[in-house]
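ping. complex inputs:
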Amino acid sequence: MIALKDRLPELESASRTIRVGISNRHIHLSNEHVEILFGAGHQLKKLKDLAQEGEFAAEETVTLVGPKGVIRGVRVLGPLRKTTQVEISRTDAFGLGIKAPVRDSGQIEGSAGITIVGPCGSITLTEGVIMAARHIHMHPDDAAFFGLKDQDRVSIETTGTRGIVFKNVLIRVHPKFRLEMHLDVDEANAAELNNNDAVQLVRQS
Amino acid sequence: MIALKDRLPELESASRTIRVGISNRHIHLSNEHVEILFGAGHQLKKLKDLAQEGEFAAEETVTLVGPKGVIRGVRVLGPLRKTTQVEISRTDAFGLGIKAPVRDSGQIEGSAGITIVGPCGSITLTEGVIMAARHIHMHPDDAAFFGLKDQDRVSIETTGTRGIVFKNVLIRVHPKFRLEMHLDVDEANAAELNNNDAVQLVRQS
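pong. complex structure:
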């Protein structure tokens, strides 16, 4: 359960403003893969906390190697997961030479493969690489405020010269979550969004 | 005036389907700058025609050099223009370390600067680098069909998992134009669009 004090910014705005968090390419690792990439018994070191409770950026990074290109310095996010998952943008996918599907987190069956290289070893996944479907994290209080429930889909509208309406935005509700929309770098660039920009919820038609 | 035979694909569809052309980073050059970059008296060599009449991709490429990065192999588009203009995505702008504004083509006053390097020399622009505002080229017949006029703004809707509504899409009408929506690589990736995908015109609200 996230502490009330950590949710004050959104509760203080009468309209419960939804703010944007832009996800750069990153990787979630299983313990087995951490040990292959970084050595037996290795523990991820926290670099900084992320907005969602318990989630953190680790000091560790890996290199992604695809048939057409390489991306260095891909941030590991903690905590450990049961299954390794790589989240990249379509720009990254073209650069690596792979075809990653748009998926909700955790839905990796039949997704793209990739080779991941760390300082102590490498692994080659046959699946696990996705483009994360844009979504909004919500505390149950936020969901009640908006009249939404977990797994609903909404549209999100942005303003400005490059104003966009993002359709099919997944709602994810959990007592640990705080209100935040996650999208990837391509989506942010298309709409000229920066971290923490406010966006508007529109009911899906 | 574009020949009728070159407009048959769009005329053959009853709904006059608008198709997407994705603009990768490119540069339009003045004659003076062609001579500095490629040598005195140099003439651009046509690599292939583009969809819009008279426009072509040249064999020539240049290198863009910004304070934080370099992009090689940037395609020169012909024909020559009065003023040199560089069109990049926001991804490119971050990579180069410059801040390019979203502008309609030709509106470069106060836009970003860049150094451009060719095989025979280099130039440093104080302005001329933009992110091109998305727009739709239309023949006057198309404009009449849709009930639109030059400089109107519309919204364009795409389908699929990453379906988007692009607001503020500029309408450009000219007898030389054929029906085509131009957007940049970030916008295409955000919506998972490929070249020649069909999109739907929605009236701006």
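The first strand of chain A starts at residue 18 and ends at 23.
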